[in-house]
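Assess the record.
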Amino acid sequence: MPQLNPNPSLFTMLISSFTLSMIIQPKLLSFTSTNPPSHKPSTPVKIAPSTSPST
């Protein structure tokens, strides 16, 4: 099995990495969340015990 030339795939990886980190990522990070997390303490939910007869 012949060895593949790494130059085309290396170039493609570098260009896609650059595109993601320099162009797409800042645009995605600039959006604000429409539903920010609340800082309220979570209250535990009480679950009523089952009243079904055991067999």
Q: What stands out?
A: The longest helix spans residues 6-29. The chain is about 45% helix and 0% strand. The radius of gyration is 27 Å.
